[in-house]
Amino acid sequence: MIRLENLSVGYKVGGHERILMSRLNMSISTGEVTALLGANGRGKSTLLRTISALQSPLDGRVLIDGKDVAACSTAELARLLTIVTGHSDGAGAFTVEELVRLGRQPYTGFFGRLSDRDRAIVAEAMAMVGVSHLASRHVATLSDGERQKAMIAKAIAQQTPVIILDEPTAFLDVANRLELLMLLRDISHSQHKAVLMSIHDVSSVMPIADQLWLVVPTATSHAPSTPGSHIPVGSHPGATATPESEILSGSPAELIASDAMQHLFPDRPISFDPLRGDFLPSHP
After folding, report:
1. Per the count of CB atoms within 10 A, which of 20, 235, 236, 262 is most buried?
2. Residue of 53, 74, 63, 79 lying closest to 27 (CA atoms)
3. Is the dihedral of CA 90, 94, 98, 100 positive or negative?
4. Domain co-membership, 121 together with 213
5. Final residue before a domain boundary, out of 143, 159, 175
6. 100 and 167 in a common domain
7. DSSP annotation of 129
8. Which residues does 102 contact at the CB level (< 8 Å), separation at least 6?
């Protein structure tokens, strides 16, 4: 459903390219949850923006359902992917139902009039996420967990094959984090959606992710990894700089077994504990 072909992401500054990642050749299938993990500043949000066509790639392309997102119109993109962030700026004045109805805009035409089918889809999305009882509440009055659920309901109502989330569990307590992640897993598997999320909550996401993309510092070599779990990247043709990061990909079990998790924070006094599925302070 999502395919990256020789994708390079970064910025052009003063006539020079700052290459964060390059030559990415990876994919996400329908019905699959992919968690994007990495330290702050490694390029996770830039990668998500590039995949979402909010930012142009330095090189290569992103295909969703076989369509090059760079060549898609805004209306076409709205039917291919929906984006959920860890905040809901500007949504506070809406009721939950009004917010979820916005997910139907790609299908309702210029005047935004909802058909009976549209209303049924909105009601079903709210019921699936468990916010039907909040339909008349204003988003500004919701808790962080309730607000995130409402945003997920809007994404479901948009009925796109791809859902992209940037730090969806930020500011949530542990119960709401786990509930939201299990909800995303169930939506992905039951509705055959490709879900890609950046997240820092390693221990919570490990049990629900089908695959991990580990954004790690670029290195000439890594510890041995399982076949297919190491996706090397480098400078794209004509580039004058070395990419700052690369991606190691595979299932959680594969990446734990290959010791790849240790590359996430190589210069920090922490290490990954495979028994606990989380990072802990390193022993002297």
Report:
1. 20
2. 63
3. positive
4. no
5. 159
6. no
7. H
8. 94, 154
Same domain? 247 vs 116: no
Task: Give the tens place of pLDDT for each residue, 67-90.
Answer: 999 999 999 999 999 999 866 556
Query: Number of structural domains, the chain?
Result: 2
| Enclosing domain of residue 57 | 2-80+162-281
Residues 141 and 240 in one domain: no
Please give the sequence-ordered ranges of beta strands (E in DSSP) within the chain, or none if there are none: 2-13, 16-28, 32-38, 59-64, 67-68, 81-85, 162-166, 194-198, 211-217, 230-231, 245-250, 270-273, 278-281
CA–CA–CA angle 76, 107, 142 (5° rounding):
105
Q: Report the C-alpha gap between 33 and 49 in whole angstroms.
A: 18
For the cut 50, the answer to whether the pLDDT of residue 219 exceeds it is yes
Q: Which DSSP category does 95 fall into? A: B
The Cα 260–Cα 270 span in angstroms is 14
**End-to-end Cα separation, the chain, in angstroms:** 45
Does residue 95 sit in the same domain as residue 234?
Answer: no
Strands 59-64 and 2-13: antiparallel
Q: Minimal CA–CA distance to 98: which of 168, 150, 173?
A: 150
Based on the fold, state whether residues 264 and 184 are members of the same structural domain.
yes
Identify the residue with better confidence: 169 or 163.
163
Task: Tell whether the model's pLDDT for residue 225 goes beyond 60.
Answer: no
| CATH code of the domain in which 266 resides | 3.40.50.300
**DSSP letter at 218?**
-
Residue 150 and residue 198 in one domain: no
Q: Is 109 or 257 the better-scoring residue by pLDDT?
A: 257
Q: Does one domain contain both 134 and 207? A: no
Domain end among 122, 144, 159: 159
SS (H, E, C) 144-210: HHHHHHHHHHHHHHCCCCEEEEECCCCCCCHHHHHHHHHHHHHHHHHHCCEEEEECCCHHHHCCCCC
